[in-house]
């Protein structure tokens, strides 16, 4: 039996002896996910890249030739492509230096430790002299910057979260801002072996635990939880939470013993709650106007939270929005006011419904990984500032207490990510992508990013190469021998960088003289020496087997239990060692869009504006049918399309008001762009909201790059930061209007390869 790991689950390969014909869920997975069906069905899709390609203008006229994204490609041999690319890398490093190369390559790539694309491209560019890198992620851009000031490094919140098994046994009330999405908990970086998304909720519910799901979508929390659904206006959670805090404060329900011993700055925050600073008491009546939630329900909920073992959990989506710091910070503050941080089943959580890894017990042994080497360049950007960087070389900007300057980028190398999936305002990104002299993309598929490159190199999928893999906080460590031959002329990223390294005279530095199998054996053997008292089989036995089950710590985790037990012995890593309800460091930065304690700040685009420019709040959340843009051509992802486009969901009342019916082809638009989508009318969507997940491959109209024929919401979203502090991405929420699409439906071009010359 061949078991294979992906970011979205583990499968057993079904093969006809030569080819992978299908997949079957791994028998160890108690809650298998249908996303695995995308893999085999996508392998030989016409959108696979079969051989290296070079954009015609670049080939004819050299670096900097105009019309990137509009021109045909010329198929070339590997020899030609690698010679051209090696020459271009030599030129850019010689004439402009490593500061002119953006090698961030943000993206999820694929499971598998050795062929992890970022590790490969970063190691390669480090051997060449370095590159401008990115910091943070689109996932947690705001959390990563904010949380260390407030409570802890974001990884502590994720990896040391209270175990789901503890929640199942101890929690009496879960208040989940952004819900507890079972679709998101399908996925974890590096892979998932056993999904435990719903089991803990059923167990808790059966014991009498209540769930409150605060979200614009009813199905953000699974039926098993039997949750109460509260749907405030999207983007207004901070006001909701402030009112909960105000009730705790005013009704004497805040735990002053906890606040005194474990936190700083409550008095400053409380005076804001009481209206002493601005004349506005942040009571439920005030919040009701903003959120649309009845004041009585807010007041009642605050009392319920104060009288139960309560978990306040905030999804990652809430911080992927303008002023995303505020609801996140308030989640910590509420949990602190309840005095339950550090108690089993109570306190604060971040992302129980955002990924599989939160609340999974971390193995006490971590698995081998490839070293990326040292980057000689210190320049970086917060990841979501990519378009700003390309459009504004030399311009200053503020970030996290620092004043930084955008570098002047000549060459962009992307391996393992898809910026034309992940970035906002794609017409603006397309403009930004005209600026570098050369864009290089390694990818298995003709993604929109590959179509906006000059040199395109076809890469293997995981099923086509030898590797091993294990997900973050996952117990299984699997061998992943290749299941099939590569498609066309596809090569591993490692093989590509090895060939380039030879041409550039750094071959020995990059490969250390090893083949892929020699690397796997070497990394494994090195690792085997570090596992201490835990016996590990030798490599050949591991390679022939069905995976190793990694050992766990003895006790299930309870977040911040040490800190609670002894805050002097186990201080937090915040500046004061305590939970910071007021941060004098952040206050000292004097950013108008993120003051020293959490507050209500009105978003730029939301339903509560006096005169909203457009009447619907688009929620651009993660797709249920795939991971991001990956394998959108696969069977499961295709099975949910409507009228050949990505589905958009809206409430029956909003559809009726626009004369729209289930299954209609619709046009979604705002001032930045427009896209087509297929309509699904659904009561699970709050009135005033439309939901279009990310990940439909960007298929721009040839004459208008702001019009996507397929349904990519990022033609509509704003390329605006969450705040000056964190510069996180804000793709989650956007105002739009939706109308019937009257014309003849245009054909999609993304499911075919681009034109060749
Ligand atoms: N509007 C809006 N936008 C968002 C979000 C949102 O909520 N709303 N969410 C954001 C978030 S949280 C994230 S994480 C990003 C995700 O953005 P990305 O991580 O960039 O998205 P993916 O589709 O996973 O891109 C991975 C790419 O790597 C390729 N690939 C896979 N395996 C390999 C390999 O072995 N080698 C190479 N070279 N390539 C490989 C895939 O084909 C794919 O093109 O999107 C962000 N964008
Ligand atoms: N199936 C699948 N799972 C995934 C991914 C995927 O692509 N596919 N991507 C993975 C990645 S990279 C990440 S970062 C995580 C992301 O995890 P999250 O960021 O938590 O996921 P989203 O689906 O973007 O958002 C979750 C829900 O938040 C709700 N929401 C949006 N705005 C608001 C608001 O203002 N207030 C409230 N209360 N709720 C709001 C939406 O209804 C949405 O469905 O998911 C991971 N899991
Ligand atoms: Mo993410």
Automatic annotation (TrEMBL):
Sequence ranges assigned to domain Molybdopterin dinucleotide-binding in this UniProt record: 616-729
InterPro entries hit by this protein: Asp_de-COase-like_dom_sf (IPR009010), CT_DMSOR/BSOR/TMAOR (IPR041954), Molybdopterin_N (IPR041460), MoPterin_dinucl-bd_dom (IPR006657), Mopterin_OxRdtase (IPR006656), Prok_Mopterin_Oxidored (IPR050612)
The entry's protein name is Molybdopterin guanine dinucleotide-containing S/N-oxide reductase
Q: Which Gene3D superfamilies match?
A: 2.40.40.20, 3.40.50.740, Dimethylsulfoxide Reductase, domain 2 (3.40.228.10), Dimethylsulfoxide Reductase, domain 3 (3.90.55.10)
User: Molybdopterin oxidoreductase domain: from which residue to which, for each copy?
Assistant: 48-503
Q: Does Calcium count among this protein's keywords?
A: no
Give the record's keywords alphabetically: Metal-binding, Molybdenum, Oxidoreductase
Query: Which organism is this protein's natural source?
Result: Actinomadura barringtoniae
Every copy of the Molybdopterin oxidoreductase N-terminal domain together lies at 4-44
Which family is annotated? Belongs to the prokaryotic molybdopterin-containing oxidoreductase family.
The protein's required cofactors: Mo-bis(molybdopterin guanine dinucleotide)
What are this entry's molecular-function GO terms? Answer: electron transfer activity; molybdenum ion binding; molybdopterin cofactor binding; oxidoreductase activity
One term under GO cellular component: outer membrane-bounded periplasmic space
